[in-house]
Each structure stands twice: as structure tokens, then as C-alpha cells.
């Protein structure tokens, strides 16, 4: 009995020791899919409130499966869409934009980076990683972003996107 308990405990804990997530149960898979669909539905009408609702839905899915490629890139996209709405899609060096670009751009970048780490060739992850990194780097101001190497990272991400799908040749 004691050896069986140890075996059970080790099986349950090994994924956490080695940094792997435990497999997602079928019931969780259905719930994750439903949450992602709910977020997608919210984004059918582009408003800040709908983007925030989509983020809440995608983040709820990520609580069930932090390694969901789809939920990670879609969360990044929703944060970028809020930035698009608030900045009219124009990255300008305006002081009033900097806190927003840092906060939402940083969150968007973190989710996109996670999606990219899960699927390095994923077009959606690369697309939103490029966009979110651009927003986040802009929070520093153009000169600081250049000095911190933002151009090199953007170029690297753009080249990865082109390599994954040459339809993005203008990236």
C-alpha cells in the first residue's frame, strides 16, 4: 500500500518536476474549446469591451491548459486589438500611449512568446509575436527601442514568419 501511494504520487508529480504539464482531460478539452469559441464570438464585433471579454475567456481556457497554443496566441491578438483600437493602429511616439503600450503590449508579447515557444513555426504565434513586440518596444520610445535591439528582434521574427509562410513576404 505504501509503495502504491508513492507510485501514484510520483506519477502525478513527475510532470511538474520536469516542467511538463499534465495531460488535459477530455472534459477540460471540451471546456477549453467552448471558452475559446466564446472568446472568438466576442471578437466578431470589435470593441474594447468585447476584446476584454475575449481575453477573460481565453485566460479562463489557459487556467485549464496553460500550454494551449490557440488560447495563447488568441489572447495576444485580443490585447493587440485593444491597442489597435486605442491608438488607431498607428504606433506613434506619443507620451500618453507609452503606459498603454508597455502594459498591454507587454501582456500581448508574453502570450505570443508562449505560443511561439509551443509552436515555433505557427503562423498565428509569429504574426502576433511580431505585432505585440512592436507595440511593446514602442513603449520605450524609438531611440531606446533601437538601442535595446528591437529592430534586430523584429527582423528575426519577421524572417521566421516569412520562412514559415512566404505569403507574409511583406512582413
Strand content: under 5%
Find the count of extended strands (DSSP E, 2+ residues). 0
Largest sheet: none
Provide the gyration radius in Å. Answer: 19 Å
Shape: globular
Which percent bin holds the helix content? over 70%
- Name the structural class: mainly alpha
- Helical stretch count? 8
Order of helices and strands: HHHHHHHH
**Span between termini:** 60 Å
Given as residue ranges, the uncertain stretches (5+ residues, pLDDT < 50) are 1-20
Mean pLDDT: 78
Please supply descriptive tags for the structure shown above:
74% helix; globular; 171 residues; disordered N terminus; 8 helices; mainly alpha
Summarize the structure.
Helix content is 74%, strand content 0%. The chain is an all-alpha fold.
Give your account of this protein's structure.
This protein is mainly α and 171 residues long. The chain has helices spanning 2-17, 26-42, 48-64, 69-87, 98-118, 123-138, 142-147, 150-164. The protein is globular.
Element layout with pairings:
Layout: H1 2-17, H2 26-42, H3 48-64, H4 69-87, H5 98-118, H6 123-138, H7 142-147, H8 150-164
Helix pairs in contact: 2-3, 3-4, 4-5, 4-6, 5-6, 6-8
Amino acid at each position: 500500500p505504501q509503495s502504491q501511494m508513492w507510485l501514484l504520487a510520483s506519477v502525478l508529480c513527475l510532470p511538474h518536476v520536469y516542467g511538463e504539464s499534465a495531460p488535459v482531460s477530455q472534459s477540460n478539452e471540451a471546456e477549453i474549446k467552448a471558452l475559446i469559441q466564446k472568446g472568438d464570438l466576442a471578437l466578431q464585433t470589435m470593441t474594447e469591451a468585447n476584446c476584454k471579454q475575449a481575453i477573460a475567456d481565453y485566460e479562463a481556457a489557459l487556467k485549464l491548459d496553460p500550454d494551449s497554443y490557440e488560447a495563447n496566441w488568441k489572447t495576444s491578438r485580443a490585447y493587440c486589438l485593444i491597442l489597435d483600437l486605442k491608438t488607431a493602429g498607428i504606433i506613434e511616439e506619443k507620451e500618453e500611449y507609452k503606459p498603454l503600450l508597455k502594459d498591454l503590449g507587454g501582456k500581448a508579447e508574453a502570450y505570443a512568446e508562449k505560443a511561439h515557444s509551443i509552436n515555433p513555426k505557427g503562423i498565428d504565434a509569429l504574426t502576433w509575436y511580431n505585432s505585440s513586440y512592436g507595440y511593446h518596444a514602442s513603449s520605450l520610445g524609438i531611440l531606446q527601442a533601437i538601442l535595446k535591439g528591437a529592430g534586430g528582434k523584429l527582423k528575426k521574427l519577421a524572417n521566421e514568419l516569412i520562412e514559415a509562410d512566404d505569403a507574409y513576404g511583406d512582413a
